[in-house]
Amino acid sequence: MGHAMKIEHQEVPVFTNTRVHQAPVAPDGVPASVLVVDDNPAKQKAIVAVVSRLGVQVTTANSGRDALRLLLKQDFAVVLLDVKMPNIDGFETATLIHGRPRSAHTPVIFITAEADSDSERFLGYTMGAVDYIFSPIVPEVLCAKVRVFVDLWYMQRKLILQTDELRESKVLLQQLASHQEIIKEEERKRIAREIHDELGQNLLALRIDASMLHARTGSMHPKLNEKAEYALKQIDATIKSVRAIINDLRPPVLDLGLQAAIEWQLKEFQRRSNIPCQLQVQSEDFDRCLDEKRATALFRILQESLTNVTRHAKASAVRIEVSRDATRLYMNISDNGIGMQQNGTKRGNSFGLQGIKERVRMLDGELKLESDPGCGTTLKVSIPLDLLPTGPSESRV
Ligand SMILES: Nc1ncnc2c1ncn2[C@@H]1O[C@H](COP(=O)(O)OP(=O)(O)O)[C@@H](O)[C@H]1O
Ligand SMILES: [Mg+2]
Predict the structure, then answer these.
(1) Which of 146, 167, 188 is the last residue of a domain?
(2) Which domain CATH number covers 27?
């Protein structure tokens, strides 16, 4: 502390700070603790009386050794340390205090009567936050100095509380995101099934009727036959778009396993984008023991990555590798495109990669993004196979 290096005399007028007269307010209602170390009981008592005005908890010690013992168990906002004490004096005590990890940054205020002989040593003392005060003590000066450290302590405390709060709300947000993700997947599955069962079945029945009408009107009613043919075509087009909607919501091929779903998705991707895809699976049964939740998550990650390839990569080839070992499943998605731009991943409403990260996190997995400008992008996902993550959001569903 800069002002610790100045020698202050008692004649210097004390600045009148009204804040000194109002006790500082602890952010969580827990008062700060101040340690008063003095071998002279009368002086100790006087200091305690002054410091207590700040509404803090005051603890006393009669020697440096006592103080060190107390500092092992408790953290103090500031230590008021008498310099002249038998056995270990104030300076030695301070050095020992600051030599320990727990109290390395505990501020110390030295209290001394002899300005001249000690001032050199104050200047030489460099460890930790240090201040000093001369006796006879001016209560206002003592209060003002202690208050600075108590305020600091409370500020630190407030920061810690806020950090805890932030951490908690981050966890809550993540849980909410996972929860929403699970609900969304279930909802998509339900809607896809309903469309398939209700709309799909009706359309099929309609098609059979229209087809029969078409066959039977062939030669006798050419006009009607033409109408029937038109209706049949309409029905076929509708069946096709219903299928597309179902696939968009949740491809039924997922029920056949991840491999089948990946193959289907790649075929779709090639058809739409004209970018050739290569799929390499290490063993045929890599999706053995893969529950639906994980298969769906990996499938969604693949979909999102392929969307990114189409939208951003300008690639001419895509390669997917899937493999597993005893405990983990690995999926790598690479393109040979332009690579990610340095600032590309931090756009305001870009949630694709964020969604991938969230899905990987939900599965307790790992995600690596490798990309160099001009050298394409590779997304590497690996997830554990045995343990199902048990987040609180999961038990709620
Ligand atoms: N395969 C890729 N090749 C090049 N850039 C990519 C690729 N994937 C993602 N990016 C970059 O990362 C950014 C963030 O992607 P994403 O989170 O999916 O959001 P969005 O696709 O909506 O922009 C993209 O805007 C793009 O700049
Ligand atoms: Mg995207």
Answers:
(1) 167
(2) 3.40.50.2300
* Residue 310 CA, ligand 2 centroid: distance in Å: 9
Q: Are 378 and 334 in contact (CB under 8 A)?
A: yes
What does pTM read for this prediction?
A: 0.73
Q: How far apart are CA 257 and CA 262, in angstroms?
A: 9
Contact, 86 vs 55, CB < 8 A? no
What are 264-304's pLDDT values in tens digits? 999 999 999 999 999 999 877 778 778 889 999 999 999 99
Question: Which residues span the domain enclosing 286?
Answer: 252-396
Distance, in Å, from the CA atom of 341 to the CA atom of 338, rounded to the nearest integer, reads: 8
Return d(Cα 189, Cα 295) in angstroms, integer.
Answer: 14
Tell me the C-alpha distance between 238 and 246, whole Å: 12
Mutational test site, ligand 1, from 338, 342, 353, max ligand atoms within 8 Å of CB: 353
Strand intervals (E) in 90-165: 108-112, 130-134
Number of domains in the chain: 2
Residue bearing the CA closest to ligand 1, atom 26: 344
Could you tell me if 20 and 133 lie in one domain? yes
Determine which residue's CA is closest to atom 22 belonging to ligand 1: 350
Give residue 84's pLDDT band: very low, low, confident or very high (50, 70, 90): confident
Q: How confident is the model at residue 231 (pLDDT cuts 50, 70, 90)?
A: very high
Reduced to 3 states (helix: H, G, I; strand: E, B; else coil), residue 273 is helix
Domain assignment present for 222:
no
Distance CA 69, CA 103 (A): 11
Question: Whole-angstrom Cα distance, residue 273 to residue 270?
Answer: 5
Tell me the C-alpha distance between 97 and 128, whole Å.
10
The reply to whether 133 and 256 lie within a common domain is no
- CATH code of the domain in which 353 resides: 3.30.565.10
Residues 319 and 280 sit within 8 Å (Cβ to Cβ): yes
CA of 355 to the centre of ligand 1 (A): 12
Considering the domain architecture, whether residues 162 and 277 belong to the same structural domain is answered as: no
CA-based Rg of the chain, rounded to a whole angstrom?
Answer: 37
Domain boundary among 145, 167, 189: 167
